[in-house]
Amino acid sequence: MLSFIYNVSLKFEKTHGYSPNTLYMNYAHLECLKQQLENPNDFESITSLLGMELIVCENTIHPTVSWHSEPWKQASSF
Fold first, then answer.
1. Which runs of E-coded beta strand occur in 1-78?
2. In whole angstroms, what is the distance from residue 25 CA to residue 8 CA?
3. DSSP characters for 3-56?
4. CA distance 11 to 9
5. Domain ranges of the chain
């Protein structure tokens, strides 16, 4: 899962000229990602490792990335 996310992020960066800051995935993807991490229950460490906000959305077929001008944590508090 980490290599897939890396490749999607790299493709985004090459296309747009800047790195993505948001990752969308479903719960199954998240569980696969957690299996590759030392501390799978520490959500903050997952987002820190990825360098992106993580949005879990059940209707996401494949992990995708994007860039938002407003960080998700801040946007959700408005």
1. 22-25, 53-56, 64-66
2. 12
3. HHHHHHHHHHHHHHSS---EEEE-HHHHHHHHHTSSSTT-HHHHHHHHTSEEEE
4. 5
5. 2-68
The answer to whether 30 and 56 are in contact (CB under 8 A) is yes
CB 65 within 8 A of CB 23: yes
Amino acid at 34: K
Q: What is the pTM of this model?
A: 0.82
Give tens-digit pLDDT for 31-64.
999 999 888 788 888 888 899 999 999 999 999 9
Please choose, from the candidates 13, 12, 47, the residue with its C-alpha nearest in 3D space to the C-alpha of residue 33.
Answer: 47
Give the total residue count for the chain: 78
Angle at 45 between CA 10 and CA 72, to 5 degrees: 65
